[in-house]
TrEMBL record:
This is Type 2 DNA topoisomerase 6 subunit A. It comes from Haloarchaeobius iranensis. Mg(2+) binds at residues 196, 248. PROSITE patterns: TOPO_IIB. Belongs to the TOP6A family. SUPFAM superfamilies: DNA topoisomerase IV, alpha subunit (SSF56726). Keywords: ATP-binding, DNA-binding, Isomerase, Magnesium, Metal-binding, Nucleotide-binding, Topoisomerase. Residues 191-357 form the Topoisomerase 6 subunit A/Spo11 TOPRIM domain. It catalyses: ATP-dependent breakage, passage and rejoining of double-stranded DNA. Residues 69-135 form the Spo11/DNA topoisomerase VI subunit A N-terminal domain. Residues 139-188 form the Type II DNA topoisomerase VI subunit A all-beta domain. Its cofactor is Mg(2+).
Length: 363
């Protein structure tokens, strides 16, 4: 089922290829200019509260054998993606890597999946089209949501109208690879709660937290996939809903919050589509470890290094995070969400979350 978005994405790809031919016609050496994709060229934009690329650029040019091979691979990939859109087909990033084995020019074949993944990201950047609009899929993330939300999903079998409580099982509604194919039609949601772990997500659903508090529970499945972050941003922007992120109490989980709220370095070119700067942290705090005497594990050296790094990270430069991170380094402990069960299976839904959300003005 081709759409106007498909046609626009295909045209952007054709325009990229046409630019190479125009360079040939002018007698120029074909080239493609991209932002320098290094950590030193990623900037935290305080105005928008997201990660963006800086001003430095690099050029892929055919004036060297290595550069010519990169452009050849780009041309073959553009041709494949344009044909895929024309035929209304889709493929995974993994399939693209293997498909290149059948390309007639051996120099156009990828040496590994990292190379093909980076090339797709390059094409996203120069075309300003998301890979989902190229019909490129990651491997399944399986992230889900459950709560009082009605939506329409565009599928190959036509439109599906779904209520994300009444029409789904306990597993919830699986977020599609491209959340822009769904339309929110109605809801009774008061806030969105993004949950790191499957165990805690299941506890909230079993205890009826989504029903009692008109909450949409989004399972992040650890570091959230792009589709998960995209749907979270849409829920906030289009439905004007508060977004809360509920994670474990360790530096890696704080970065999960950071990726939802401020974007990630790897996807800096997509921050305006994926990041929700207004998201707020409701996860396990070092302060909770002390106040609730939670079961803990000692910090590993890698945890300490990560926490010290976060003290310098622009995403965590405020009084709350400074206090909490310094406290965690002082007590030398970390705790999981499920540690709240030490106070009973209902503690998280009867006490912990209601109290935290009330303090934050959400309830």
């Amino acid at each position: 089922m081709s759409t106007d978005t498909d046609a626009d994405a295909r045209q952007q790809l054709i325009d990229l290829a046409a630019e190479f031919y125009d360079q040939f016609e002018r007698g120029d050496v074909p080239s493609m200019t991209l932002p320098t994709r290094t950590k030193s060229n990623i900037e935290y934009d305080e105005a928008s509260d997201v990660w963006v690329y800086g001003d430095r650029t690099s050029t892929r040019s055919a004036n060297s054998v290595r550069g010519a091979r990169k452009l050849l691979k780009a041309i073959y990939t553009i041709e494949f993606l344009a044909r895929q859109l024309d035929e209304d087909r889709s493929s995974t990033l993994r399939e693209l890597y293997y498909l290149s084995e059948s390309w007639d020019a051996e120099e156009a074949q990828f040496n590994g999946q990292d190379e093909s993944n980076k090339l797709v990201e390059d094409l996203e950047i120069v075309s300003e089209v998301k890979r989902e609009d190229f019909h490129m899929r990651p491997e399944e993330s399986g992230a889900t949501l459950i709560g009082p939300l009605e939506l329409i999903e565009q599928t190959r079998r036509g439109e599906r109208q779904i209520h994300c409580q009444q029409d789904v099982g306990e597993g919830g509604y699986q977020i599609p690879n491209n959340p822009d194919t769904i339309q929110f039609t109605d809801h009774d949601i008061d806030f969105v709660l993004c949950v790191e772990t499957g165990g805690m997500r299941d506890r909230l659903v079993e205890n009826g937290f989504d029903t009692e508090y008109n909450c949409l529970i989004v399972h992040l499945k650890g570091q959230p996939a792009r589709a998960t972050r995209r749907v979270t941003k849409r829920l906030h922007d289009e439905l004007d809903l508060p977004v809360l992120v509920f994670t474990d109490g360790d530096p890696w989980s704080y970065r999960i919050f950071g990726s939802v709220a401020y974007g990630s370095i790897k996807s800096a070119h997509l921050s305006k589509y994926l990041a929700t700067p207004e998201a707020r942290y409701v996860g396990i705090r070092p302060q909770d470890i002390v106040e609730y005497d939670l079961p803990t594990d000692p910090l590993a050296d890698s945890d300490v290094n990560a926490l010290e790094s976060e003290l310098e990270d622009p995403r965590f430069q405020d009084e709350f995070w400074t206090e909490q991170i310094e406290l965690q380094l002082d007590i030398d402990k970390k705790a999981e969400q499920q540690a709240l069960a030490a106070n009973g299976l209902d503690f998280v839904t009867d006490t912990y979350l209601p109290e935290r959300l009330t303090d934050m003005g959400v309830l």
